[in-house]
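ENTRY TYPE: protein
CONTENTS: sequence, structure tokens:
***
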Amino acid sequence: DEGPDGPKQLRKKYAAGADEGPDGSKSYVAMQWLLNDDKLDLDTELALGFLDHLMLGTVSAPLRKKLLDSKLGEALTASGIEDELMQPGFSVGLKGVKAENMDKVEPLVMEELRRLASEGFDEKSVEASMNTIEFALRENNTGRFPRGLSLMLRSMTSWLYDRDPFTPLRFEEPLQKLKARIDAGEDVWRPLIQKYLLDNSHKVTLFLEPDMDLAKQTEEEEKERVKSEMTKLSSDELAKVKENTELLKKKQETPDSPEALKCVPSLSVADIEKEAKKLPIDIRTDGLPEGAKIITHDIFTNDIVYAEILLPLRGVPKDLIPLVPLFSRCIFNVGTSDESLLELQQRIGSKTGGISASVFTSDVKGEEEAASYLMVRGKCTKSQAPDLFAIAQDALFKCKVDDADRITQMVLESKAGYESSIVAAGHRFASSRLHAMENTEAGWLGDSMGGLGGLFYNRELAKSLTDGGDEAFAEVSAKLEQIRQAILGSHGAIVNMTGDAALLSEVTPLAEDVLTSLPANGAPSCDWAERTPLEAGNELLTVPTQVNYVAKAINLYKGGYDLHGASYVVSKQLNVTWLWDRVRVSGGAYGGFCDFDTHSGLLTYASYRDPNLLKTIDIYDGTPGHLAGEEVMEMDAESLDKAVVGTIGDIDSYQLPDSKGYSSLMRYLLKVNDEKRQLRRDEILSTSKEDFPKFGEAIKQAHEKVGGYVVAVCSADAAKKAKEERPELNFNIKSIM
């Protein structure tokens, strides 16, 4: 602490698991600046947004690269500009820092900021950032989130503080002014770094160190405090507390009255279009290598090309599957044999609206084989299309899988990401684990490349690379090259593009070039059937946490259920009534929901940041009884209408052109045709009250026939207590962190 008016340092502890260790290998160092005591003007706000992107926005951005190359930590903390509050801030830091390195992070950041304030940024980096941010501003792609709501929320960043709500939406004038300043040779960025970061004494550096006893200590202190407060209450006051608790519980579990519900504007089933919305799709194979396809969607995109390149994973040996996500990261994040990482990132930023690689897997209803692809997704203006496809080809064929420092760095980042995610979003890991217990291809792939299996694999990989030296990396590099050779083949490859007919006619030859550039004799398909099955059972995965993430899954198809559109309505209604009321409102969880995967047949319940564990499982098990109970059977026609309309609202959700093209592609890959979609829509629209107990009976029968399994992410103490209280559930406790 440098005094009341200068920069400050805070050293705190956080509740940690046993493997986070006395060496402080999971410590955090984060720096935060208060940039202004009031809302910034739009010109400055926009310029700082560009500066943020220049310093941190790409894997080759100098401040990001300096921190990660230092090897002082495993990954960045949440970093960048926060300008939605009245007082904007900037933060940067590292997580996974060893104790002896904690005091080295802040000097490193300040050293790099001083260098940037002295030397500035090269012209190509500025050009790339300008193109990237301007493309994003003009495209205004809000995904599935309605643009109108997005604009409203953006306006609130100003309106909340009694300012013009339209100011944040008017980017054109400040953007042109900023471009003019840069074109005139003005030194824009260095003064911003100097003023808002280097000369700014409103800075706090937070050091967070792991404490394995803190969680237990905090819990005991809380129990003592409650006990102390209780002793101060008289018998009448205790009775009043009990009475109020019972009243609250009753109020929480009592549905809103029909009179109250009528106050909410709503549509009726009669207002809903009866025909399922169709999306344009054209599939072409003529003139292409054997087994290759070009899929196009004739949709107006205002001359923006949206493209996906899909390469089947079937040729990848099963023991290399956990490495596929690392290979997908390598494609655009390590540079190529012809370009450094910085040069590749500058080329992507200046010549496209963005390009990335990821892995896609899914069950296909009624089939043993999963849909599994490495997918490259990109977007650009019409004039940039040759650059987009050239970048994709160069990166796929030439990415440097022998860059030891960069790849080791990415493995450490992935490991840190897994470990923070399982604590913050344990329901996703629990659900993935349950899917893996089905021992389908998609379940196995999902767990190996993104679930608990992926976490364990990345831990071992990180240890091997940090301890094993050149020999260990050479083995990993050879495997990454093997993956490249396994997926680079034209047979089964797809190029998917969305745009209007005129635009598609211009860019289709580029897609043809991509497919013909792929080797015709790719790797043969691998037999994944010999993989080691995951034993199904109830599991408690322990991490340092004060809340639980509780999931349970039952496969309805294995129980004999035949898919009917009413299942969409029932599961939707469960989410907004039974699970909402019992798990969230009464139970105190941040979220409680279920999802019926119509491709696999898996009905999965899950809760988020849940104070309960066994109680939540009991609520899940009470679902069939609820669906056959009085509350459902007394549901009036208006409530049923709302359930149906809400379901159709999800199916007909708002989509921008790129999402429409991607949805059409997904339907093709998962073999969901328009006839099936129309049948399901008809069934949804004709859903009756009687369909609810029928679905409940299907759940009950599946549970009796094939069983259901629980996976929860929780603390070690919560796991021990649950195992003692419910021995019949035979919980297997696994320590994760």
